[in-house]
Amino acid sequence: MKETYKSRVYTDRPDYADFEPAAKFEAIKSIIAKRLREHPNAICSYSGGADSDIMIDLIERTRGIFSLPSIDYAFFNTGLEMKATKDHVKAISDKYGVEIKEYRPKVNIVQASRTYGIPFVSKIMSAGLSEWQKKSIPLSIAQEYEQAEDKAEKRKELKERYPNCESVINFLCCCNSAGEPRPNIQLVINSSKYMRDFIEEYPPGFQISAKCCDYCKKQVAHSVQKDYDMIITGERRDEGGMRSVPRKDNTALCFTETGNGQYRLRPLYYVSDKDKAWYKERYGIRYSDAYEIYGLTRTGCCGCPISYKAVDDLEKIRKYEPNVVKAAWNIFGKSYEYRMQYNEYKKVRMEQEKEKAENIAGQMSINDFIN
User: What residue ranges define each of the domains in the chain, with the CATH number in brackets?
Assistant: First the structure.
């Protein structure tokens, strides 16, 4: 049986990750209390989304139980935020009697997307395709690698042929730096089915990049957070993408020390959707109107093409937030359209493969009967 590769995110799971919700959240409260005692100079990023609502409630309950000092909260406004989100940030601030300070980026989302490009499918895919566009490496290297008998030697030769392009080679060839095939991990182009074939047949007519996230959220966040000992964020492993992939400084896990000596706490990292639903009902949490009235299941960066539901979600909010919908289409429209083209391409390919498999199975049955 073929062994399935699993990252440290899955192999190094703490015991409480598999607890039932009630016990899991008690464990998380203890973790929060321990870390806030050790690092009271802390700041928490609050987005106005469902995960943030669970997180701030957990933190404030823990502070009350253990008589811990207050911490700072920050809301990073990209410039493309729903009124529902901004209103909810104000309501949560009033509910818990805390200040949630708003910060805006120096480079807004319109400037960032026009200068660096727009996301497509995922942050990982966007980063890989962005580098491919910059380096102009032919997609045919993937066929070279796949057809090579000695894949490690071929990977070495590709590195020599295309210096300073290691990550792009791995991305396109679906392998690691040692030349070992890694077709089932998220860091390769075919983590999205048929993507390499699609890109070859229908090259993107726009610049792809996830840099808008860097400029509109990460850079302003780093500027605000640099003087704090501990940074608290609401990432969850089950969200997938980059949040389920361990990075060099190990910041994908629940509590870690970063390269610059700060600490990062992700109290919800091992909280599942089921756990969230339990907590919401148990403590009567009300999410923003974006969830409770508009019917969204997640918010994140409004209209971001990384969400496969971005276009559908924009239609859900159109009657409530028409200006936001118009702005999102103006900024990300090319990516929405390209995603639709990719989805149709994938659908056709899957139907063709299914038909081919059925024909082969039918031929085998006839031959079996004749014999």
Answer: 8-108+212-296 (3.40.50.620), 121-201 (no CATH)
